[in-house]
Amino acid sequence: MIAEIWGGSQAMHGPRHIIDGAAPAVGFLFGYSVAGAEVGGFIAILIAVVLAAFRLIRGDSVRVVVASALVILVFSLFVEITGQARGFYLPEVALCVVMTALFGATLRTGKPLSYTVSRRIRLEPAEPADPALRLHLHRRITLAWFVFWAVMLPLYLANKVVILGTVALILGKPALLVMLAVTWLRVRAKGPRPAESEGPIVETEVT
Question: Whose CA is closest to 55, among 89, 29, 24, 78?
Answer without folding.
Answer: 24
